[in-house]
Amino acid sequence: MEISGNLSLIGYGLSAIGPAIAVGLIFAAYINGVARQPEARGLLQPIAILGFALAEALAIFGLVLFFL
Amino acid sequence: MILTAPALPAAGGGEFHSPTPEIFWQPLFEVGGIVVTNQMAWAAIVTAVVSIALITLSRKAAVVPSKGQWLLEGFYNFPRNSVARDMIGTKEFRKFVPLIVTLFTMVLFYNLMGIFPFAMNPVTGKIGFPIALVAVVYVVYHWIGFQKMGFVGYFKHMVPPGLPGWIVPVVFLLELITYFITRPLTLALRLFGNMFAGHMVIYLFVTAGAYFLLDGGILLKFLSLPTFLMAGVMVLFEALVQFLQAFVFVLLTSSYIAGALADDH
């Protein structure tokens, strides 16, 4: 069996693991926080989204590097 | 002028080609050396339609709102209250509401072109559009920072007070890179990358489904049904991502503005 393709695809798959874990941890912490103190939702939501955006930026860098 | 999504690969080709970034290059016509692409045409159309809609809905603003005004206020209150007021603070946010609301509307509707049936192509999936939007944000948050703290003061404010002397140059360098390179770069690339990747995934599922159905054997023909279903699921997921990215874009913009306005670090 012959497999053809680009090796950087595997590299991008590997590099996406880190941000994926980070995003999972951020939202786990957010859900925990809201479950413990539902009235803190409004305060926590922008912080969670901000952290999510920063972690996601790493995955986006990987995507861009894949096409370079 | 053709304003539809590109035609699916010709059936009966035999071999499946996965989509490449070239699917985003859709020139329509050329005027004096400048090529007008599909995305540019859709950007112009959606800007015109949304502007007209916003102006007509807000023209007859009254204390007792009509149905249209009520809808518009619901839309307007989201970036104004949940983003600008919460991030910048009640004292100074009013000045930036026009910018934040405009950016939110533009990014949202440009993103939504990715699932709009006739376009099916996110305008922000072309890197030029995010760069242009981010250029505005970049100038604004540096401008207000310099205006508020002066040229030297702005650089001084990047380093938090109370650090030991030997670490100050290192932190200053890192903050300098963050303020002038990382922030605009991530802001533009995040929006572009999300729209680009999302569109590629939808395109892949649709073309793979078409390939399975038209060229595959009997088993693959059955596989085309879940593939098309998955394409539908991805369209719904993209709708969520497109809204979220518009929200994240203005959220980060107002957080940068708040950072440039803040007295402490």
Describe this structure in words.
The complex is a heterodimer of chains A (about 70) and B (about 260). Chain A has one domain: F1F0 ATP synthase subunit C (F1FO ATP Synthase). Helix content of chain A is about 80%, strand content about 0%. Chain A contains three helices and no strands. Chain A has helices spanning about 5-15, 15-35, 40-65. Residues about 1-10 of chain B have low confidence and may be disordered. The N and C termini of chain B lie far apart (about 50 Å). Chain B has a two-stranded antiparallel sheet.
- Computed Rg of chain A: 17 Å
What share of residues are in beta strands of chain A?
Answer: under 5%
Distance between the termini of chain B: 52 Å
Mean pLDDT of chain B: 86
Low-confidence stretches of chain B: 1-11
What distance lies between the first and last C-alpha atoms of chain A, to the nearest angstrom?
29 Å
Largest interface: A-B, 15 and 16 residues
CATH topology of chain A: F1FO ATP Synthase
Shape descriptor of chain B reads globular
Mean pLDDT of chain A: 87
What oligomeric state do the depicted chains represent? heterodimer
Shape of chain A: elongated
Strand line-up in the sheet with most strands of chain B? 1-2
CATH C-level of chain A: Mainly Alpha
